[in-house]
Amino acid sequence: MEIREAIPTDAARIHDIAITSWMDTYEEIYSVNSKTHFVKEAYPQEEVARAIRTAEEARGEYFNVAIIEEEIVGFIHAIDVEGTWEIVRLYVLPKYQQNGIGRKLIRELEHQGASPIEVYVESRNYKARQFLVSFGFKEESETTEEIFGQVEPVTRLKRIYE
């Protein structure tokens, strides 16, 4: 597996990974209306390409992809928010999950200097929460957010460094 910085021509593949992974993860959590809204409005390729260009130009942003056999199978996007790195996107295609790809993407962020790291996850996304806690993240707080027309509890987790 290779991890490299995303480039604007990766935007279409990143878009597809986000949609596929999100729909798999949130199938039972979000309503049909919310899922339709997500597919229609989330991760437009132009927005993904813009985020990649911004990350290329800025010190306070990382956007990396994971590649297996020349195919992008996952990605991570993190931004520096007042000295704390926030993972805003972390997706791995369902058929590649539980193979250490998410961990390697986070480790690469740390290797590039992102520390401390936090992430916000829908509280009912137990799979993501379990993954993050097993990797040393600690649940810090919970709030609610309106996400695609649906109010959901969201948990903030922060990476613990010893």
From TrEMBL:
Organism whose genome encodes this protein: Exiguobacterium oxidotolerans
KW Transferase (keyword) present: yes
Keyword Transferase: yes
Phylogenetic placement of the source organism: Bacteria, Bacillati, Bacillota, Bacilli, Bacillales
N-acetyltransferase domain span: 1-158
Pfam families, per database record: Acetyltransf_1
GO molecular function ontology, one term from the record: acyltransferase activity, transferring groups other than amino-acyl groups
InterPro entries to which the protein is assigned, alphabetical: Acyl_CoA_acyltransferase (IPR016181), GNAT_dom (IPR000182), MshD_Acetyltransferase (IPR050276)
Name recorded for this polypeptide: GNAT family N-acetyltransferase
Record's keyword terms, sorted: Transferase
Domain of life the protein comes from: Bacteria
